[in-house]
Amino acid sequence: KQEVTQIPAALSVPEGENLVLNCSFTDSAIYNLQWFRQDPGKGLTSLLLIQSSQREQTSGRLNASLDKSSGRSTLYIAASQPGDSATYLCAVRGHTGANSKLTFGKGITLSVRP
Amino acid sequence: GAVVSQHPSWVICKSGTSVKIECRSLDFQATTMFWYRQFPKQSLMLMATSNEGSKATYEQGVEKDKFLINHASLTLSTLTVTSAHPEDSSFYICSARDPARGAGELFFGEGSRLTVL
Question: Cα(A94)–Cα(A103) distance, rounded to whole angstroms?
């Protein structure tokens, strides 16, 4: 059974700092990995999607990497801003394909202090 | 593109009543939609996979008769919580994949917070 872990559960940093959010998963046989952002009381916004054959994806100040063999992914946020404050979730999709089950971590709640 | 909309965003109901939540894909057709439940500070838990024109596939431990799912069109899936009780209070989120994108990326609705008194 796939398990996704995100540690720590919460993180507080000063504005401008570069930071790394970690995600680990127990079964390396995945189809893809997706990072999401969730604001309080809201749904999920897709940030980055990494296919199992890829090593990283970039979008603006965000960079996500994937090391499938070690079961790890990181989300790098450059020059953090107060508007980045949110909960960041990673989720992995099973290896059977695009409609296979997505397993989520509990998320990391990020607070960026002005 | 790839916008998923949920309605209502929040609902309060009395114990014993039924509540329907709608999930719509606004700019694409979704043959498959997914319903999740999220408790405070917890992961999203997949409840069921909704398939257009056929029966939903429920995850282990999810009561089919309690959580009725209907996916009557390529842009609409509904979740009905029947005879709701306080323990059903939760945040329900739907998601869908745009087949035209082919990458398996999931897009989520805004979520619906259910409070059962």
Answer: 8
Q: What are the beta bridge partners of residue B96?
A: B33, B107
Q: Do A45 and B44 touch (CB under 8 A)?
A: no
Q: Which residues of A67-79 are buried (b: 16+ CB within 10 A; e: fewer)?
A: ebeebebbbebee
Give B15→chain A minimum CA distance, Å. Answer: 23
Which segments of chain A are extended strands (E)?
Answer: 4-5, 10-14, 19-25, 30-38, 44-51, 56-59, 62-67, 72-77, 86-94, 102-104, 108-113
Interface residue A4 vs chain B (CB under 8 A) = yes
- pLDDT computed for residue B93 by the predictor: 96
Residue A86, SS3?
strand
Q: Measured in Å, how far apart are chain A's first and last C-alpha atoms? A: 41
- Single out the residue of A87, A91, A11 nearest to residue A48, CA to CA: A91
Amino acid at B74: L
Write the pLDDT tens digit of every residue in B93-113: 999 988 787 667 788 999 999
Residue in B93, B104, B110 closest to A31 by CB: B104
Task: Say yes or no: B11 contacts chain A, CB-CB below 8 A.
Answer: no
Chain A residues inside the 8 Å CB shell of B113:
41
Radius of gyration of chain B measured on its C-alpha atoms: 14
